[in-house]
Design a protein that fits this description.
mainly alpha, Arc Repressor Mutant, subunit A, three-stranded antiparallel beta sheet, elongated
Amino acid sequence: MSDAQTRKFQKDLNSGLVALVLLAVLAATDEDAYGYDIAKRLLPPGGGEPLFKEGTIYPVLRSLAAEGWLASRIVPSYSGPPRRYYRITPEGRAMLADWMATWAHTRDFVDHFITAATAATAAKGPAS
């Protein structure tokens, strides 16, 4: 696969996962969080490139809030523009539970085929 194809595949995966990940991030914290803070929490633990660009999370946060799954409030800032803080709502927690079950089912389904492909590739040996 070329780098461009790999980037497209990753982008397609990310577009379906960003809402799930954002709800999970906000469910895991007891405090309200603003966009930049949320983006920092999405950085890979060992460093490297984040899967989601910071600019892509803001429209999804607004969409989740419009659905009622997040509540938001604007707080003035002395060092820049006002910040919008988000927290997950009870409806958001219910949706997250549904999406986590769907994700687990999807992950298990995909892993089944990846495991089979890995075993078949190993059995055939290195490509000639």
